Amino acid sequence: MNSAARRDLFLWGVDALNCLESRILRDGRVLPGGILKVDGFLNHQMDVTLFEEMAEEFHRAFSSCGVNKILTIEASGIGLACITGRVFGCPVLFAKKHLTKNLAGQFYTAQVASFTHGCTYTIVVSRDFLSPADRVLIIDDFLANGEALKGLISLAEQAGAVVVGAGVAVEKAFQPGGEAVRAMGYRVKALARIRSMEDGKITFC
Amino acid sequence: MNSAARRDLFLWGVDALNCLESRILRDGRVLPGGILKVDGFLNHQMDVTLFEEMAEEFHRAFSSCGVNKILTIEASGIGLACITGRVFGCPVLFAKKHLTKNLAGQFYTAQVASFTHGCTYTIVVSRDFLSPADRVLIIDDFLANGEALKGLISLAEQAGAVVVGAGVAVEKAFQPGGEAVRAMGYRVKALARIRSMEDGKITFC
User: How many beta-carbon contacts under 8 Å exist across A and B?
Assistant: First the structure.
């Protein structure tokens, strides 16, 4: 965020919000069914300048953790993960989603239940690209029920890699995923933690 | 590529190759069926440092075209498109793949035949994010038969946007897509144009 934008936000009385929270209040919309529509800047059209600020926040949180690989999941995690990988100076690996369960031995696989789509799919990464030498930071756009995040943790740990934590753009803190993953002992940095979207009004934790 | 790497390549007699071509020769593999496996640095694990050099090449080619939007397609185009969007300083939009054909009026849609998967899918972008004000650079990882690229061009032109050209990482120049899209009048910048992969040996144009 440039200094003029920060000053504007200060004048609006929202100086305590970070760049993503401010943007959600300005451009996000709450749709029926508890859907937060942020497709103008986060997960369909992507504001890579905003992503850079978000990546810097992830770097401040995890810079001392020896991260040497970013792990994410297709499709909407890839953009933020790549901008974050640039800041960390390390490669980015994305898990692929398959509907078939029987995959050959060249992949690590995990099952992920999708509440949005009402199905279970298999996520896979090649065994070539995760190993015990890896210190993995997981990046994703949303954390709600935590199924995708738990699947990514499983992929990394099957390979013997260390998961140093997860950076997510938006956590729906009124859903159980964040609490569950933190209770498993993982550090989760969420840039915007939404406490409530009742009556279409977004409030942060 | 840093100067030491350039010097090494010069000493090896491959100074005429760019960063991507050099990497393909070093780490790419040709599999039966004409498949070029570059999943260690391009389309599964992604070397974002390499992507930055590739994005700079796209910027040199299209910097005078007034690009104000990058358009790509999920999933493997997104990473390179985001790094490219950072260099151009503009937002990145990715088309989504659907297997359903009937989508409501809020999307631009195009049909894309996939030779790899033996099916036809619908690609979509929201009408909110493409308009006649847009000067679009299309970015993708592979150009072979050109079906995805033609679909992306169609999406942009349905919106009245101007397609200034396409930047692709790898063009399989022995397949017809590149020639077809150029014959339609579009400028295509391919960073690695593969002339042949016969007997597992990769040669560039």
Answer: 99
